[in-house]
Amino acid sequence: MHNAPPEVLISEVGPRDGLQSIQATMPTAHKLRWIDALVAAGLREIEVGSFVPPRLLPQMADAPAVVQHALKHPGLTVMALVPNRRGAEAALASGVHKITLPVSASEAHSLANVRKTREQMLDELRAVHALRRDAVPGVAMEVGLSTAFGCTLQGAVDEDDVIRLAVACAEAGADEVGLSDTSGMAHPLQVRRLFTRLRAELGERAGAAHMHNTRGLGLANCLAAYDVGVRTFDASLGGLGGCPYAPGASGNVVTEDLVFMFEAMGVRTGVDMEQLIVAREPLKAGLPGEPVYGMTPEAGLPKGWLSNTTSAT
Ligand code: ZN
Question: Is the pTM of this model over 0.70?
Answer without folding.
Answer: yes
